[in-house]
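Protocol step 4 of 6: structure prediction from sequence.
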Amino acid sequence: MADTIRIQMMDHFLIFIDEKKTDHLAAKSKKGAALIQYLILNEGAPVPNQKLLSALWDEEKSTNPENALKTLVSRLRVLLNQIDPSLGACIVSDRGAYHWERIEGMSIDLYEIDAIFERLAENNVPVQEQRRLYNLLLEKYEGDLLQHSEQNEWALAKATTLHNKYMAAVYAYIELLKNKAQYADIVGVCRKALDVDSFDDRLHMELMSALIKINRTGEALVQYKHVVQLNYRYLGVQPSEDLQEFYKQIVSAGKTLDFNLESIRNELRESGERRGAFVCEYAVFKEIFNLQMRNLERLGATMFLAIIMVSPYNDKEIDTMRQDNIMNGLLEILRKNLRKGDTITRFAPTIFALLLPTVNYNTGGMVLERIKRTFYRTFPNSNIVFNYRVGPLSSQGKPLEPLAPPKE
């Protein structure tokens, strides 16, 4: 018999015997693994046979469901005893029910996490004890409950509750560390928590803010670009307004010029040597757009807005890697073929937005047609449709004029 048996319910369902992983149970009996998970979720309380049948067999037809359950339990005990001679006895038969009974030396991460939440909810927990509990929670919570296990629809309510408690605890820990100005620790907490919920905007902003506080603005900028790509690739949207605003803080924090004419002149000269159109994040693009609109109203001038969208023929799906290669190639074409005064941003996963202050009604379409021809020369067999719209922005504060119809 083993000295220690550790059952993992968070993220993956696994059984460790003396810290050696045994993962063949789920492969040999998926329904058996689901039965163990269900019983463990009930924390030792007897589960009626009818409830088990409903959860595990659902819509499956069986001429003798009670017998099917007994057979499953019998075979499962044999499998468990092959893992460790003491495990089969953990499935205990009650009158018309079954329950899971923990034995000496057995730990279950789900129970430990519930105990941490209960302790943190108590009043007057010393700060040092809070920190220990928060760090233990980060270690134990390797992912949401049974998120990689099959037949776990019945675990969703518990998984959602745990996830919400976990995120609330992480936020509370971050606030505790902020009060102590321990920003390097915040970086570690955020990175660990983002492994669990990679789309949480607050975590991303707390991470970038902490990086700025410890003078790692380069890493903060890398993190911002990572967030943008996450939103493009998996959600097909721009980052939230709060995240876009945060970009300006990162850029501002990275500016370390001395306040004198020579250094400013050198910085401006360096920027002026860049060739081609200006490529920027969407948050900066919006600032430039609003600034240009003010100039248009003051000067009575006209500026053109263009939208370029690429899409596969016949609305077929395009894999993410190929899409990124095409969009990166198109971005390079735009940068080289537009003028210095023009501005480019990636508005959506397959859309670029352009500000073109240097064109007019006649040249606007010509510029986009030239870019389109260059695109098809660069990607001759891509089976990609190149669509664009281009039209003027109003200089009188009126609604935008209708854009030209899409070109193919």
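Step 5 (inspection) to follow. The first helix runs from residue 24 to 28.
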